[in-house]
Amino acid sequence: MVASSPWRQQRRRKVFQSVFSGEVAGSTITAATGAQYLDLGQGQGISILGSGGGGGGGGGSSAVDRYLAPSSSSATLGHATPEPQPQPQHPYASGNEDQRTYDQAWQIVTSRVALPASATGPGPAPPAGNDLSSGLLPEDDGQFLQCLSLLANAEAMLPEARERRDVIEWYVSQVRAHFATWVVPLLAGGKEEKGGGGSQYDRHMVVVMSTIKTLEGALGMYFQGLNSLLEGLSRAQHSGAGEAQDNSTFGRRFKRDIHALIANSASQGGAVGSVKVVLTKLAGVILGVEGLVALPGNEKGPWGGPPAIPADDDFKVLAARRRLAELVKQLHNVGLTGERFEVLFAEVMNNMMSRFVKGAYSGVWGASDVDEGNVVGGAGTAAVSSIFTTSQGSGGEAGTTVPAATSACIRSLKDWVENRYAQLNVQVLSWINATPMSLADLKTCQSLALGRLAALRIQELFDIVLAWPDAKGALEDLKATITTTARRQLLTANFSRALEQRLLHPGSSTLEILQTYIHIIKTFHALDHSKVLLGNIEPSLQLYLVQREDSVRVVVAGLLASKEEMEAATKVQEADEQERLQRGATGSEAAAAHVRRREIKAQAYSTPAAAAATSSTTAYKTPATRSRQKRDSNPSTPGPSGRAWDRLPAHRKEQFLSRAKKINKLVELARLLNESASVRHAAATAEDDQDLDWNDLNWVPDPVDAGANYKRPKSEDVIGTLISALGAEDVFIKEFTAVIAERLLGEPKSFEQEMRVLNLLKRRFGEVALQNCDVMIRDIQESRKLDSKIRKNNSNAQQQSNIPGQPLLVTPDNKGKAVATPQQPSSNEIQGKEQKEPEYHARILSRLYWPNLEREHFLLPTPIVDLQKQYEKGYESLKSNRKLTWLNQLGQTRVELELEDRTVVVDCDTVQATVIYAFQSSDSPSTSSSPVKKAVDDLYLELQLDEDLIAAACDFWARKKVLRKVGTADGGEFVVLERLSDETAGAAAQQAQQPAEEKDKGKEKEEEEEEEVAAAAAAAPKEEMVKRLTNKEKERREVYWRFIQGMLTNASVSMPLAQMAMMMKLSIVEGFPWSNEELQEFLGEKVEEGVLEVVSGGKYKLVRK
Amino acid sequence: MSYMDDTQNSAPGSIPASKATAGAATSKRVIENATKRLQNELMQMMTSPAPGISAFPSADGNLLFWRATIEGPEDTPYAGLNLKLSFEFPANYPYTPPTVLFTTPIYHPNVDFSGRICLDILKDKWTPAYNTQTVLLSLQSLLGEPNNASPLNGEAAELWDKDPALFKTKVMDRHKDIEED
Asked: Nearest 5 degrees, angle CA A828-CA A899-CA A954?
């Protein structure tokens, strides 16, 4: 077993000495003393070692010699202690007879109890401490006892022997030396034995067992020797009864010393590491941690709820428990259960707790109504389980079963701590005779465990938020565990980090961010009614959202989502739900089976105490909790564990995002708005003076981390929070007005949805803030009436004349200026044979109340202009003193085109209609033999319309296959596609620019390919948007330029860039979105235009004209 | 009535006693309101500028202190001159008028030699409906049509009617382009 060379032994010894220098040094010296006597004995021809009690086997004595010789010299050299040195010299100097006898007796005694030169004693060592009464070898008995008594009574019997020594002391130092020499290397050497087969646990187990065996052997040996000595001594002087007691005291002290020695030396060897591994393994099995780690995820299945922990009486657990008991007792016997062991054990248990919490509860967010089957077994738990079973079985007596307001996870964790964790602790501590655990310790353990759970949940919080409202259970865990300010801070810090990493990056759409934000608001509100936590994490999110230009738009669109959209979204969610249910079906069966098993078990355990517990639990249940439970439970999820689905976070996120994609609007907002409408109503009266709600039994003080002037927000106000997050109210209202305006000018229909949302918003912002919207809606309604009246009048007045309908709206403000937007179906016919009378409707807007309605100048087709004039006249006859201003570009037109082989009916805007009309009017129908061809430039001259718009309109018609682009010139030329068949030909011979010549009379309608239509439809709004944005942008730059002019005229003649940027930011109400670079670029353009110059110091200056 | 007049005549910036007693929070909000109003006025001036006048907050970023420029209207003695003014807005603007001074030396019946202006809308006729732009427009028209009934500069008032040529000379003598930087 020990194959170490002398050199290595030496080295180890040195290490040992360096650590325990004082103690071991002492023992070495005394050992050296003994060794000299041995040498002496050999010199005299008495081979003590050879005949000495038991011997250590063949090589033993020479090994001793080899070792002892150098050690004695080194000891004498190394230690200048004066006392032992003279001792050896004296006896021989004297030649005293008594002394000689004494020395001989000494030799006999010492050789009798001398320790063998190996770690283990001869043969099977009897258990240490048990051999006090065991007999000595008979033949040696006499001599040994005699000598011993000689030594013991030296004073009386050998008065001349001046040199006397205490044989017990000698023995103790012998033992120490032996231990240091032989056993310590073994303990340390354990680690080196690698490479054995079997699992790590097995290998370490082997190490531990061999260590124990070594120690047991050595101890047996030591005690055997000691006992012989003590027994001999006691016999030698068995006159005094007091002596015997001394001896046994001495025996105990010796044992304690030797244990201390062992404990100290063991700490540096690999054996301790092995013990730790073994302990970890066994404790893991007993506590049910092992299974969790071995089967990550699987065990838990898709169903949440605390995991099933192997029952207490599980075979494996029992075996492990027995094994542990054995092991600990053995360790205790060999003295390895000192303070260090306790520390070690505490470490192991600490790890166990962490691993258990992590393994058992990560990703388990089930709501609190999922659980019972999983409560850990054990005596204490039996009571709890039986509560469930009783109430479940008999149904009535206890009402519903959920005891008080703690979540399943917390309950199961507490049970685990109480019944498994603490139990193990208590057992182990009792095995090693340590201070037992008190009840307070148990509480501490539980709160520690809850702390771990809190840390875990904090880690998971972002995923919990995403899973809202499925993770209510996890929220309850958190709510119950974030009780300290430090934890709350950890939570906010952690969550903010997660937020930044996972959400606030360019990869997530504004919609996603807002949806998550809604979830965050809800989650945190559930977590912390005071909203302090939410307030702490919000700033970064809000800051980010403000930077997203479209966030207001998304919110407004969400608010205005129609019922259909909400329903669609709900369907998608339900589909998700079902998919989830199916996925979880297997899991639920398993869970159910488990429940059944537990029921049986629990019944077996149930005791009167359990019954008492039942009633007390019920007493805790307040109506409040019950109602909360009820509200929390989602009616669409049947089954006890319906909402507790567990997926890996990544997977969840994916799910979540894909769902977000399916629903492309924040319909949640619309739903919330509707809900809150009813809720608010009821709450409004009650909550008027909610600061003074004396009846609120659930009131709690504001959390300590609330600021000094912290004002408790009223309720979970998602919409309010969102809107305030997006900046000022007026920004939101402005955007809302813009969206409403757009909708109102769109398809004529009833604006129920808008009205409803408007009314709801009014409640929030007040009538005044939304007055514009009111006016806008009324405008539209009024103009309907007015429109029909005007048309009636007109038709009465001029029944003969054609009254074409064309658009426009108009409105007069009070001062007589009017704005009109057109709106009407009109029909133009290209090469049409019969001219139908177009209908013309207008909407009349109050200019002041509508946002940014700019006029786009272009020439309408003459028939339409005539209609406009008539309409205008009609209007002015109704409302004198008012004038209409037509906003031609805002109208809508239905165009019917009769082409050679087909008729096309298209709804389009007025610009597009005007453009296509131009293709008709160029030629008289008589020359219709060749299709009309026009260039964009021609159209520009003809219509005085912006070229870009003309090109866009032509493209629109080209997509409708009414026009075809010919030529590659910049502006491009377009030709009417009279027959669809021309297209292919035309495409083939595009350069030829000579499409069809003759027209066939046959009219064949060909269906347009749907794909193309779809593509066109998608493309069109985009183009428009770009167009609009650039217009807006142009305007904006114009205004900024005026700011800069004003600044450089008045504030200072010349200014550096940074100061200009600062001034812009300061003086523009809506903020100045440009970065310094953008501003610099803009100023650079102006410098190029020659209106600005750069003077010394990089300052900008207006050029004086 | 007389109380009202007092309030409006008191130097801008001095807050009436009743308001001074109000808490610091109130006065802060008042200033915020003034600032907001001024920002809006500025934006309005920029989006619908009037010819010949312009104004902007001073370069130190104090929104309560503006500088303005009026171009002397054609067919007045001030044609072709750039006249600078300073506007100092009280914290409770627009409830009290701004203090307006010509910083460019100007020879005008209603302006004294330190640039102070005698204009009723800057004194007792002020209402919150006026704004910087309207004040500037009034001043612009004042250049062409001085109110000689209540002159600050008696000589100028006299010369305006009697000797336009001399008046013009005096204007040009007095005028000095100031370059502030």
From this structure: 65
Residue B137: the pLDDT is 92
Given the residues B15, B81, B118, B142, select the one marked as catalytic: B118
Please report, to the nearest 10 degrees, the dihedral formed by the alpha carbons of residues A321, A327, A329, A331 taken in order.
Answer: -150
Separation of alpha carbons B130 and A52, rounded Å: 124
Tell me whether B63 touches chain A (CB under 8 Å).
Answer: yes
B125 touches chain A (CB under 8 A): no
Domain B23-174 has CATH 3.10.110.10: yes
Tokens, residue B114: 């330190």
pLDDT for A321 equals: 81
pTM metric for this prediction: 0.52
Residue of chain B minimizing CA distance to A1060: B59
Helix axes A439-467, A649-662, angle to 10 degrees: 30
What is the predicted ipTM? 0.81
Q: Which CATH number fits the domain A786-1008, given the four candidates 3.30.230.130, 3.50.50.60, 3.40.50.300, 3.30.430.20?
A: 3.30.230.130
Q: How confident is the prediction along chain B (181 residues), in pLDDT tens digits per residue?
A: 444 444 444 444 444 444 444 455 566 777 778 888 888 898 888 888 888 899 999 888 788 899 999 998 888 888 888 899 999 999 888 889 999 999 999 999 999 888 899 888 988 889 989 999 999 999 999 988 888 888 888 888 888 888 888 888 888 888 887 765 4
For tokens 């009223």, what's the residue? A714
Contact A1069 B47 (CB under 8 A): no
Q: Beta-carbon neighbour count of residue A1015 at 10 Å?
A: 12
In this predicted structure, what is the pLDDT of residue A71? Answer: 37
CATH class name, domain A1027-1102: mainly alpha
Helix (H) or strand (E) holding A811: strand A810-812
Residue type, A616: S
Of A1043, A1062, A1063, the CB nearest to B46: A1043
From the number of C-beta atoms within 10 Å of its C-beta (0-12, 13-18, 19+), residue A1093 rates as middle
Domain ranges of chain A: 6-268, 297-483+584-636, 786-1008, 1027-1102
Q: Residue B21: phi, psi to the nearest 5? A: -75, -20
Task: Please say whether the beta carbons of A232 and A142 come within 8 A.
Answer: no
SS (H, E, C) A64-98: HHHHHHHHHHHHHHHCCCCCCCHHHHHHHHHCCHH
Question: In a 10 Å sphere around its CB, with 0-12 CB exposed, 13-18 middle and 19+ buried, how is residue A865 labelled?
Answer: middle
Question: Of the segments A337-341, A426-430, A616-620, A1029-1033, which one has the largest average pLDDT value?
Answer: A426-430
**Rounded to the nearest 5°, which phi and psi values hold at A747?**
-45, 130
Which among B101, B97, B96, B106 has a CA at the least distance from the CA of B116?
Answer: B101
* String of DSSP letters for A303-358: B-SSPPPPPTT-HHHHHHHHHHHHHHHHHHHTT--SHHHHHHHHHHHHHHHHHHHH
How long is chain B?
181
- Our answer to whether residue B118 is catalytic in this structure is yes
Residues of chain A whose C-beta is under 8 A from some C-beta in B? 1039, 1042-1043, 1045-1047, 1049-1055, 1059, 1062-1063, 1066-1069
